[in-house]
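Researcher: Excuse me, tokens okay?
***
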Amino acid sequence: MTIAITRTDLDAGGFRAAARRMLALVLEGRDRTEAAQAAGMDRQTLRDWVHRYNAQGLQGLTNRPKRGARSAS
């Protein structure tokens, strides 16, 4: 099932810019909790993004297929 984005405060470009700022805060040595709060996400999500970025660069931040068994619909 596809979930539509209903928030309109950022377009795709604005979201990308916000993500770059969030990663920039980490690169500048900011505390991850502070960087996550500035980006409006929790610390665990930020941690996951940093690991994905370190492993694969910006490509690592693209959406991936969900893991697990497919639902029978």
